[in-house]
Amino acid sequence: MLEKFKSEAFLREYRESEKYASVRKEYEDLYAKRSFDEPLMLKFSKFRMFAEKGERNLYEFALNQHIDTLYITAYKALFWGGEYISKLEDALYDVLSIYVWAIHAHVPDINEENYYELDLASTAIGASIALIDYLMGDKLHPLIRKRIDTELRRRILEPFKAKVWHWEDRYNNWTAVCAGNTGMALMLKYPEEFKALLPRFNENMRKFIAGFSNDGVCYEGAGYWGYGLSNFVLYAILLKEFTNGEIDYFTDPKVKDICRFFEKVALSKDIITCYGDTTIDIKITTSLLYPLKAIYGDEIWVPDQSRLSVPVHFIHALLYIEYYDPEYTCDELKNAEYYMPDAGWYTKRTNKYSLAARGGWNGDSHNHNDVGSFMLVRDNRQVLIDMGTRYYTKDYFEMPQRYAYLETSSRGHNVPIINGQYQANVRDTRSYTSFEEGVFSVDFKELYDITALKKLVRHYRAEDESIYICDEYSIEGERSFTERFVSYFEPKITEGRVEIDNIAICFDATKCKARYEKDIHLTKNPDDSINETVVYLTSIDDLELNGRVDIKIDMI
């Protein structure tokens, strides 16, 4: 793959061919937006904010300006040369001089000097700088090339060899991103060192793959699926070439299932299932979907262009260009029904609505306390919602505060409130799911950590015009049972009926009573400003407490 980008004939073809006209336009726009003659200063006062106040956005925003300038200028220098080579040298000189490439939130102790922390950002920077050196070679000033060698050795190679890093024992996106980018940096700059360390990288990737369910489900959600997998796919493509085809991850059936995950959780043109720390509108990079389309053909769904993002990251930009095909246009999102038994997830798309419901457990990476919950989408709008993530701060990832937030607590999800209690984050508890005769069932009593709760089973039956939900429960002693439905639309309550946007939640008014309250969902912009969105929490109290609540959701 990479040798093509050393060919003057291909570089000229890219600059002049009509085939790449739209891609060139995309990167011209990115260059205009992402290159800064004077990026924001990386101030120590902002760097220390995370350790002292838990704030992480301001420093990351400034750091990303420096990094994005390097990436997008490398693209211009590779294809157009000339003045852009000098600009690239300036950008390299800048980034090579940054105290630490890691995100400040990942630096364990700011009281100690640490320029070598290997995290998501530092390893990605290392891989791109190694690629820039590999492709540009002697076009770069000798001092810059010496600095590249010095910094890659002290920031990437030597730290990796010095110890086993915490992310090597994880089973999530960190493993793919950090190990994949470290491996690519070594593959490109220090190939003999890479060969010696290959068994270690193989074990890292084994753990990454093992972190998915046997159905190919990414428990962290679609956003982290795209992030982790895009780095894995890039590493796997380069590794296949490096080993002359000896190691080919794409022949693994589980990897193929993992690569098809996005379609299984798509609920409409603009909405993706957003369990955990993700959002409904995440975009997937073309540097992931286009290579997968080339490898697996029609088994990979390419969504509407509005759901795709153009990669700024230099090494991913080249992967996109390598696999770009103007024939890869939007594929129709067809009606479908998926039951993923190993993960305990269920999705159904119909002409009238889309439903996503889940079992699983509350020990997933980036999880929320949401086992048994669901999302309902109509007319390309999320009606009964999952808010997805709150903005990231230090205490958002620390116990017990993490699960006190509306976004992470079961208080803000479509699951029952039992004896006034929400789900507990007990890591060794789980649900049990089944799918028989069109009914998806979730047994999730363990998730509440309530001794008196002896039974809690939710049944979903999704028909053409309506969804039926039945909760069966058994509680010893004094008890209360409340159904919870969450929306961004204000409910209209009448007897036995709650209308929310274009649905109606129907129940027996002789047995249940509805009410609602408001709360606030908080998100943050890159400039540190906060968005506040009103959330409506509808409660339907079971007055009879006879161990069963039946709900019918009609499309109106």
Considering the chains and any ligands shown, give keywords for the structure.
single chain; Glycosyltransferase; 556 residues; Beta-galactosidase, Chain A, domain 5; alpha+beta; 5-stranded antiparallel sheet
List the helices and strands and how they pair.
Layout: H1 8-16, H2 21-34, H3 44-47, H4 49-53, H5 57-80, H6 83-96, H7 120-136, H8 142-162, H9 173-189, H10 191-210, H11 222-242, H12 253-259, H13 261-264, E1 284-285, H14 286-296, E2 308-309, H15 314-323, E3 336-340, E4 345-349, E5 354-358, E6 374-378, E7 381-384, E8 417-418, E9 432-436, E10 439-443, E11 453-462, E12 466-475, E13 481-487, E14 492-494, E15 497-500, E16 503-506, E17 512-524, E18 530-542, E19 548-555
Parallel strand pairs: 1-2
Antiparallel strand pairs: 3-4, 4-5, 5-6, 6-7, 8-13, 9-10, 10-11, 11-12, 12-19, 13-18, 14-15, 15-16, 16-19, 17-18
Describe this structure in words.
The chain is of the alpha+beta class and 556 residues long. It has two domains: 2-323, Chondroitin AC/alginate lyase (Glycosyltransferase, Alpha/alpha barrel); 336-555, Beta-galactosidase, Chain A, domain 5, CATH 2.70.98.70. The protein is 36% helix and 20% strand. It has 15 helices and 19 strands. An eight-stranded antiparallel beta sheet has the order 9-10-11-12-19-16-15-14, with no helix packed on it. Strands 3-4-5-6-7 form a five-stranded antiparallel beta sheet, with no helix packed on it. It has a four-stranded antiparallel beta sheet with strand order 8-13-18-17, with no helix packed on it. Helix 5 (57-80) packs antiparallel against helix 6, helix 7 packs across helix 8 (142-162) and helix 9 packs antiparallel against helix 10. The radius of gyration is 25 Å and the shape is elongated. The relative contact order is 0.08. The model has no long low-confidence stretch (mean pLDDT 95).
